[in-house]
Amino acid sequence: MAVDVEVARLRDLDVPSLRARWRTAFRRSPPEHLPRHLLFRVLAYRLQAEHLGDLDNDCRRLLDETATPEAAGKNAATAGSRVTELKPGTILGREWNGHMHRVTVMFDGFAWSGTTYPSLSKVALAITGTRWNGPRFFGLRQKPSDAKSESESRS
Questions:
Q1: Burial class (CB in 10 A: 0-12, 13-18, 19+), 48
Q2: Are 18 and 43 in contact (CB under 8 A)?
Q3: What are the φ and ψ backbone dihedral angles of 22, each rounded to 5 degrees?
Q4: Which of 20, 27, 64, 153 is the most buried (most CB within 10 A)?
Q5: Dist CA 102 CA 94 (whole Å)
Q6: What whole-number distance in Å separates Cα of residue 79 and Cα of residue 35?
């Protein structure tokens, strides 16, 4: 039976029937305080997860570690883009318009051409004259398409 048909059948069940389905699905009684709409949603999720696959461990960990849906979304957006940890004294190099630019990581920012900048993005702006994502400009963060292909190859 198609998942959407099974979910539609759940929608028509009353609270006692949803509780009975819960006992069948989870092999225990549902929490007494759960209202009908939450019983339905959890059961519908369970059906979909059984037929289509559940969340992977990285997604579960992300959701478990966040307090709100907004925070989960923000964390998910940054999870795919890796940024290398930079220690003071590290020298980053980037060629731009035929010139090699070297930036030194300091305790209080990034030194380039005799000036200390608060962020790599400010250094990239000084070098190029246009706004850049600093970590991406210096090759510390993957492009979104690279991050997607890497995550797909791990699956």
A1: middle
A2: yes
A3: -60, -50
A4: 20
A5: 7
A6: 34
Token duo for residue 64: 């478990």
**Cβ neighbour number for residue 105 with a 10 Å cutoff:** 15
Paired sense of beta strands 115-117 and 99-106, if any: unpaired
* Amino acid sitting at position 9: R
Q: What pLDDT digit, counting tens, does each position of 52-109 carry?
A: 888 888 778 777 777 777 776 776 666 655 556 788 999 999 999 999 999 999 999 9
Q: Where are the alpha helices (DSSP H) in the chain?
A: 3-11, 15-26, 36-52, 57-64, 69-79, 120-128, 134-137, 144-154
- pTM comes to 0.44
Both structure tokens of 47? 């059906």
